[in-house]
Design brief:
The protein is α+β, with helices and mostly antiparallel strands. The protein folds into three domains: about 180 residues, Rossmann fold (3-Layer(aba) Sandwich), CATH 3.40.50; about 110 residues, Immunoglobulin-like (Sandwich); about 60 residues. Strands 1, 2, 3, 4 and 5 form a five-stranded mixed beta sheet that branches. Strands 8-9-13-12 form a four-stranded antiparallel beta sheet. A four-stranded antiparallel beta sheet has the order 11-10-14-15, covered by helices on one side. Helix 1 links the parallel strand 1 and strand 2. It starts with a strand and ends with a helix.
């Protein structure tokens, strides 16, 4: 992993090409967008790298809450300058934004008196590191740190896979700046503010799932809303492509069989790359066994698959499927009771039939005896006459 900063390019400058080659060689590269503010023309000579993770800076307004975070005034805005290749997607820079304002830094400045403590009573003077600094070069190392955590969780990911997970889990801000190209990307924040926990969790699930499909990083997913009602979890999202058209949106639960998501709206839009496809997935978590279950959503263009997006739901165990062991036990018990009932009925029927047979035999014997008595009486009468 490398981290850089540097100044207005279309991505064809020497430094950007070097960083692209480093990415292709398997190195995750994060690079500062620059500190030229909203008036920059293009991004820096390294921040314009097509394959790197370009980072803008946010200002947290000195609060813990993320809701009031905004783009730092000095952070360079996108997009980068057009390189004329006819592909508008690689001009979408920066990729992400991260905290970069009033960051405490490891600067031993107490004895020199050169400390830059912008926030009174919030310094770190007790450990002699009291300097604070601001800039996209302060935001970039934190993204490098999260990238390292992602690689620790999922060492099988390639650099573009790391970038895609960071993008797909970032918290969107500011609205889409070029909605005809991408439904999320914003010229200030990129695909959003970095979310370290969400990114690492996605990477960890992916690594443990044993996915070995052919992946493309030109298919993109977002879950836009999650709701629960009457034991059903509904996931609404959108899918879009920066390459080939999407041919399939599928999902599964706990690595079981794949199912098709429900497309919302006109399915003819599926063939249009610029238009995001809205979809919905409903999972009856009330019927799942008690505990956590992973819903996996994935796209395909007919040749390769997107990185999956995962969501964890909790099963309530309110009912049992016949495929479950408990269901099979219950079916066995019921079958046993039915078999016992049939056997009892058959035995009773046989007993009745046997009794009927004995009665008929006795009746026949009595009838035959009566016939013999009657014949004897008749013969006696004839002899007497």
């Amino acid at each position: 992993i490398t981290s850089h900063e540097g100044g207005g390019s279309d991505g064809n400058d020497m430094h950007s090409r070097i960083l692209d080659e480093a990415t292709e060689a398997g190195i995750v590269v994060s690079v500062a967008a620059g500190n030229d503010g909203p008036d920059n023309v293009g991004l820096s000579g390294m921040g314009s790298s097509s394959l790197s993770i370009t980072v803008g800076a946010t200002d947290d307004i000195n609060t813990i809450a993320r809701e009031d975070d905004t783009i730092a005034e000095y952070s360079s805005r996108g997009p980068r300058r057009d390189n004329g290749d006819g592909n508008p997607h690689n001009e979408l820079k920066p990729d992400l934004s991260a905290p970069g304002t009033n960051i405490i830094q490891a600067e031993g400045c107490v004895t020199s008196g050169g400390c830059n403590n912008n926030i009174p009573n919030q310094d770190a003077s007790e450990n002699t590191y009291t300097g604070r600094g601001s800039g996209t070069s302060y935001a970039t190392p934190s993204v490098s740190g999260v990238a390292a955590l992602i690689l620790e969780a999922a060492p099988d990911l390639d650099p573009l896979g790391v970038r895609e997970i960071l993008r797909m889990t970032a918290e969107p801000r500011g609205g889409a700046s070029q909605p005809d190209v991408d439904p999320i990307w914003n010229k200030d924040f990129g695909w959003g503010m970095i979310d370290a926990r969400a990114a690492v969790e996605q990477a960890l699930i992916w690594q443990n799932s044993g996915n070995n499909q052919s992946l493309t990083h030109q298919l993109h997913l977002r879950i836009t809303n999650i709701s629960e009602s009457q034991g059903v979890t509904s996931l609404t999202g959108m899918a879009w492509s920066s390459g080939e058209p999407i041919t399939e949106i599928r999902y599964r639960v706990d690595s079981e069989g794949w199912m098709d998501a429900t497309i919302i709206g006109d399915e003819e839009d599926n063939a249009t790359i610029a238009v995001p496809i809205l979809f919905e997935i409903q999972v009856d978590h009330a019927h799942l066994p008690t505990g956590e279950h992973v819903v996996e959503v994935q796209l395909s263009d007919g040749q390769a698959f997107s990185l999956p997006l995962y969501h964890v739901i909790t099963g309530l165990g309110m009912s049992t499927n016949l495929d479950d062991s408990e269901g099979l036990v219950m079916v066995s018990i019921i079958a046993g009771l039915i078999a016992a009932g049939v056997a009892t009925f058959a035995a009773s029927r046989a007993s009745v039939e046997e009794q009927d047979s004995d009665s008929k035999t006795q009746a026949t014997l009595i009838s035959d005896t009566n016939k013999e008595v009657m014949m004897a009486d008749i013969m006696d009468e004839e002899i007497g006459n």
